[in-house]
Design brief:
- With 442 residues, this protein is α+β, with helices and mostly antiparallel strands.
- The chain folds into two domains: 255 residues, no CATH class; 157 residues, no CATH class.
- The chain is 51% helix and 7% strand.
- It is built from 18 helices and six strands.
- The protein has a four-stranded antiparallel sheet with strand order 4-3-5-6. A two-stranded antiparallel ribbon has the order 1-2.
- A hairpin with a 5-residue loop joins strand 3 and strand 4.
- Helix 8 packs antiparallel against helix 11.
- 34% of the residues are buried.
- The model has no long low-confidence stretch (mean pLDDT 95).
Length: 442
């Protein structure tokens, strides 16, 4: 049964169409990041970036290097879209995008992580076997089918994303629409819809509609009687997110992924009418069957496990942020903080209050005042900077944060030298103080 489920060949129209959409979108993402100023604000202007912990060596290229970096990414995207040297182009884009993802957390977004995963999938999928320059140059590559696993891994990954996104919203501040009201507050100046977005009934509709959409969209797309209607709802949902939250290509990427849910004959007739529709349903079991099943099983077990890890860490993820990343916890809360960093020379006991403006951009300051991993990383950065002056220092942080509009609370134990402690990614870092509020749920 597993063999039939994974290795039975089906028509490959959906995958080839998605390759074109995917290539177009990553091209727009790459060049758009330059044109909108994202590259400048996030990677060029900062004197350093907060990379993922243990990736501190991964920093932006100097001068105009990052502009060239993103231009190369855009060229790779065009090659993917056209199916030109597809495998090489896709691997190159994957490496470059992963570099951008891991070198900075100032613009962390779950969608960026999803693109990392989709990139990995696309490196292995035979998406250039039809309507590609590769086939034009080498006709022996032409193929009208693909194994069913090429479709299934996309559906399974999207199911994980949507189900966890729905489950994460089941906490009091989302259910009483506090979060939605905060998210909509700065949208009041939007033309035509700004006033509407401030209405309480809209907040209720969006809050509960978001839960239901994330929970039900995959099964509704899989079930033929509801597929077209659910796709129309998906179009409305993602266009709303694009207009209101301005989250780049990802609403359109989500819509492009819907091709994997529609009947392959429908996709072939809609996009590739001159293509021979594959109907043989041949079963081809590859020689690498066992290692492939092992790798896929391990990959999806990790994907299922990562969003659950916060249950095994003391205190609440909404407060501590520990295990927040890689968990599909999207737009769940509003958080801001204020922080004062004090550097103490261990030899002379001289104290220096750090002016954050001397080191950080506005966005980095906000993160270094509310996100524990970045607070710790900045303490390590200060330690390294002062060591260049032959000073051995301690770094103490007085930090208070507010979650979902509540009063500021003390977040960091200001008696702990953060320059001398290690960051523990697998359990609670005890210098993060517990919240006095009782409104959190796990």
């Amino acid at each position: 049964m597993v063999n039939d489920w994974l290795y039975r060949h089906i028509d490959n129209s959906a995958l080839c169409v998605f390759r074109i959409f995917f290539g177009l979108l990553i091209t727009l993402e790459s060049f758009g990041a330059i044109l909108t100023g994202w590259v400048k604000q996030t990677l060029v202007l900062p004197s350093f970036t907060f990379s993922f912990i243990n990736f501190s060596w991964l920093q932006p290229l100097p001068g105009n290097g990052m502009y060239i970096y993103f231009i190369i990414m855009g060229v790779c995207g065009i090659a993917v879209m056209l199916g030109y040297r597809y495998r090489l182009s896709m691997i190159a884009f994957t490496v470059l995008w992963a570099g951008v993802y891991f070198m900075q957390k100032s613009s962390y977004n779950n969608h960026y992580y999803l693109l990392v995963l989709l990139n990995l999938f696309m490196c292995f999928l035979p998406a250039n076997r039809y309507f590609s320059l590769d086939v034009k140059q080498n006709p022996s590559l032409l193929k009208h089918s693909m194994p069913n696993w090429c479709r299934l891994i996309i559906i399974v990954q999207l199911t994980i994303v949507y189900v966890y996104a729905s489950a994460a919203k089941l906490y009091p501040d989302w259910l009483d629409t506090t979060v939605m009201e905060i998210l909509m507050r700065n949208k009041k100046d939007y033309v035509l819809i700004g006033g509407l977005l401030q209405q309480p009934w809209i907040h209720t509709f969006l809050a509960y509609g978001g839960i239901l959409f994330d929970l039900l969209i995959i099964p509704l797309l899989l079930w033929k009687p509801t597929r077209k209607w659910s796709f129309c709802i998906a179009v409305g949902f993602h266009l709303f997110n694009s207009i209101v939250f301005q989250i780049g290509i990802f609403p359109y990427m989500s819509l492009a992924l819907c091709v994997f849910f529609f009947d392959s004959k429908f996709i072939q007739q809609l996009f590739f009418r001159n293509k021979t529709y594959y109907t043989e349903l041949e079963l081809v079991i590859p020689k690498y069957k066992s290692p492939m099943i092992f790798v896929l099983s391990l990959f999806f077990l990790i994907q299922i496990g990562l969003p659950l890890r916060h249950w095994f860490i003391e205190d609440n993820v909404l407060w501590t942020e520990e295990a927040h990343r890689l968990s599909w916890r999207m737009m769940l809360r509003s958080k801001y903080g204020v922080a004062r960093y004090t550097v103490v020379d261990k030899k002379t006991q001289e104290k220096t209050i750090i002016n954050l403006d001397d080191y950080l951009t506005k966005k980095q300051k906000n993160l270094a005042s509310s996100r524990p991993d970045i607070i710790w990383q900045f303490a390590q950065y200060l330690k390294n900077e002062f060591s260049l002056k032959n000073k051995d220092i301690a770094v103490y942080v007085d930090c208070r944060i507010s979650v979902n509009g509540r009063p500021l609370e003390v977040f960091v134990d200001n008696t702990i030298d953060l320059a001398s402690v290690q960051w523990n990614p697998l359990k609670h870092n005890t210098w993060i103080l517990p919240s006095n509020q009782d409104y959190f749920t796990k």
